[in-house]
Structure formats: C-alpha cells, structure tokens
Amino acid sequence: MSRNSLAWRLGLIVISLAPTLCRGDEARFRMPEYPDAPPPPPRSRAEVDALLAGDAASNPAPQNDDRPLRIVLVAGPKDHGQGEHDYPRWQQVWARHLPRVANTHVETAWEFPAAQQIDAADVLVFYQRGSWDDQRAAAIDPFLARGGGLVYIHWAVDGRGQQDEMAKRMGLSALGGSIKFRHGELNIDFSPAASHPVARNFQRVHWVDETYWQLAGDESQIDLIATSAEDGRPWPQFWTVQRGRGRVFVSIPGHYMWTFDDPAFRTLLFRGIAWAGRRPVDRFNELVRLDARLE
Ligand SMILES: [Zn+2]
User: Fold this and answer.
1) Which pLDDT does position 219 carry in this prediction?
2) Is residue 203 part of a domain?
C-alpha cells in the first residue's frame, strides 16, 4: 500500500468516526445532570443480559406490532434539587430517543396533555408532581375505557388532596406530605410479580433511589409487581392495574436521575410503557443499553 493510499484510508477512518467523536451531550441517551454525590456503581453486562433474556420467547411473532405506538411524555416544573425529579430533562432526553424504535411516535406535554393528544395517544407517561381533579378524571376515564395506557413515575402519584379519586384509577396515590419515604439503598423484591411480563427475569434489584409507602388506595385491588421492606413489612413499589380495557403501570422509584440511566430501571419502564400500550414488552430493548450506566 502506498503512503498516499494509507493516508487516504486513515482519512476515511477519521471522517467515519467524526460523528461519534463529535457527538455532543445533546445526542446522548443519558440524563445531563446528576446529584452532587457519587452515583451508584454501573450495572454489570451479565446482569443486564440476564434481565433481557428470553426476548424471542416472549415475542414469538411480530404480534401486529407494525402499528405505530403513540406516546405522550408528560412533565412539569422541577421541584427538587440537582439531579432529582428533573422532569423537564427527562422529557427532552426520552422524547429524543424513544422514537429511535420503529413505529414509535412521541409527543410532549406540560402538566397535562391536550385533548387532541389524548385522543390520538396509546400511552400517556407522567413524570411530574402529580395532581388529580375532576377535569383530569373527565379526560382519563374515557381514555382508559377505550383501552388507553397510563404510566406514572415516582411523584406523579401525588393526588394533591384528591388521592382517593386518583387511586380509583391508578391503584394507589399519595396525599402530599402524609406518606412515608426513604432515600438511599433500595432492595426491591420482584417475587410478587410471578409471571407478569413486565417483570420477566427480575428477582431482586438494588438501586440508590427513593421508596414511598402508606399511600391511599386498596392494595388488594392492584397487581403487585415488586415491594420494598419498610417499617417492618413489604410495601408496593411497582404495580399494574387494569381498568376495563385500560392498563396502568406505576413505578415509585425515579427520584434520582442516575436511576433513568440504569439499564434495569429502563427495562422496567420500557416494558411498562409497552405493556400499557398492549405491545410486546421487548419492543424498546435496543434502547436499554444505549449510553447506559454499564460496566
Ligand atoms: Zn423523590
């Protein structure tokens, strides 16, 4: 090979790497800001492989997944410190990346989706300080009745005084400061989920995040996915409910933004979104490891 030819080939390599090297934070599927504290250790590749195992078995056929999945990501004003409850940045990052999966359409909404967004949506995902009132009920009840999916993450379960009404739709809901909570090391037990497709391969997962307990609502009416032991007994941290044809998935963890970059947490939320939208739970798997906190 001549020197010119080698230089030309090296040039080609540099040019082909350039988009990767120049890829700024804007392109990253990672939350741009964490708390000013050491993040938990990254998840091992073996653990993530084990969580995702059985993809083909769970999706024996395309299952008519050529229909577009229409998602609305709903955020609200940030209400905690650096790297906590960062609803606006979550919305920006996820709105950029979820549509990388084929047949996925994402819109965003602030506080609550517009009527036409709800009419067109398969799944509404709420990560915000939650709220409930008659207007929301008037929008959500028909949405659930026609088979719509709802996902609530962390403080989105706040009912702001309307927790009993909110719990009728989503299972359990919080009355502002009356619930209990704990930040720190979590050891979430998925044994209650048994055969639920959202929790396939999950047994125990360790996070550094936040649990809530003593929420309003009837625990006997939820399909329990996972618990955390607090005050001497297990309390629901992930659950689903079905309201007629409508489906709801709830994740209490979601306080620290590093949790959203954890492949195990992403796997659960992606499956929850897909399940709520009545689609194969593995449809977002290609995004689980993307820019994730992996060893
Ligand atoms: Zn929190």
Assistant:
1) 95
2) yes
Residue 65: inside a domain: yes
Distance 57 CA to ligand 1 centre (A): 36
Å from CA of 210 to ligand 1 middle: 6
- Whether residue 9 is contained in a domain is answered as no
Closest CA relative to residue 140, chosen from 166, 161, 162: 166
Q: State the pLDDT at residue 58.
A: 57
CA of 260 to the centre of ligand 1 (A): 13
Give me the number of domains the chain comprises: 1
What pTM did the predictor assign?
0.90
d(CA 133, CA 113): 14
Residues near 26 by beta carbon (within 8 Å), at least 6 away in sequence:
none
Ligand 1 midpoint to CA 72 (Å) = 22
pLDDT digits (tens, 9 = 90+) for 176-191: 778 999 999 999 999 9
| Residues found in the chain | 295
Residue 92 lies inside a defined structural domain of this protein: yes
Give the range of the structural domain holding residue 262, as residue numbers without chain letter: 43-287
pLDDT per position as a tens digit, 108-128:
999 999 999 999 999 999 999
At a CB cut-off of 8 Å and minimum separation 6, what does 203 contact?
189, 190, 191
Which CATH number does the domain housing residue 279 bear?
A: 3.40.50.880
Q: What distance in angstroms lies between residue 162's CA and the mean position of ligand 1's atoms?
A: 19
